[in-house]
Amino acid sequence: MSEAKIGLALGSGAARGWAHIGVIEALLDKKIVPDVVCGTSIGALVGAAYATNRLPQLRARIELLDWREIAFLIDVHISSGGLMEGARIELFLRDLGISGPIEVCGKRFAAVATDLTTGREIWLETGAIDKAVRASISIPGVFRPFRLNDAWLIDGGLVNPVPVSLCRALGADIIIAVDLNADLLGRHVVGKAATSATPRHEFAEHVIEQLPALFREQLKPIATNLLSPKEAVPGYFDVLANALNIMQDHITRTRLAGEPPHVLLRPQLTNLNWMEFNRAPEAIAEGRASVERANIQLQKYFPELVTEPEHPVPSASGNRN
After folding, report:
1. pTM for the whole structure
2. What would the pLDDT profile of 254-267 be if each residue is shown by its tens digit?
3. So which residues are the catalytic ones?
4. In 84-235, which ranges are continuous DSSP H helix?
């Protein structure tokens, strides 16, 4: 079993995806070293950091994120097929050293995207790794579709939210998959009213200020309601996020039933909003905790593991509302 190739399938889930960092760290602590890593959306981003040996740098950077820094990464361009252009995300990746050809990575890596025209699942196994990530994270309505090899690509979560099949195609013998969205349906989508004192309101104001001057004043009342809705009214991002959650939940259940991994990890992140990228420490801790909860499952394929973890990590799912 020691010669078996270990595959890691990292699923989509926006800000909840920081849990992937904790998953990888916990697996490495147990001497379980993935040979193949495949990711969809945020899973592609974290997987790319691992494949390029930049995971510690990514962790150090995201643990310092606050709402202002998150807002800075948003380059509004309302006429481009999405609210955000995505160029600053590409710069963010390159600044961290998550760049270069996929072919020279220390680990086998691939990302999942969706062809906007045909709806086909696209496997990005070669070429610039930062561009593969940018294509895979192109959430419809949020990011501008990404042009690559004469095709417009959008988020891979539309077709393969947890890419077990891709791991298997790349030669993985034992596949560990991470599903970030299993416990999200049924939660309330209407939050508390945003006020001028909340970080979310500051975030909305920053986005509004980036609108073209010609449209800023006319669109400011509309944008404010979209990004900071009144109490009891779902906001733009709430509606979009939950609609995507519904779709991805159905696709994930179907695909995992037909293509089950050997070990399925499900971090409990219901209380973490999909845009709360500033809550990385909680997500990372829950990623670690999900690995510890799966210790018995892991022992079936890695019998050298001890029954009890040396440093148990409690679930972080109920820390904050």
Report:
1. 0.81
2. 898 999 999 999 99
3. 41, 155
4. 87-95, 129-136, 164-169, 199-209, 213-227
